[in-house]
Amino acid sequence: MNIEKPDPNAVGRRLRTLRRQCNMTQAALAARVGIGTGPLNTLENGHHLPSLPVLCQLAQVLDVDVNQILFDPIAGGMVRETPPQYGSQVRNESTFSA
Length: 98
Fold this sequence. Notes:
globular; mainly alpha
């Protein structure tokens, strides 16, 4: 199974949008997450992906699921599988049972 890596630029745009929807400044969000405004700015500008601990804190403070930060909600978090005998198939995550 090949899971596509989140695009840092798209993640940054979603972070900025979510932060603004919460009416938070970069300084306020950074303080609540426990990082500086510089690293948050770097994330919002798409230069890096957040580490797992920072991602979890961002999701908690912004009151969203980590998938809403990492993936396009319209695409539905697609997982691409490429079985050698069948070619490329795309399945929606919601088809997987937990």
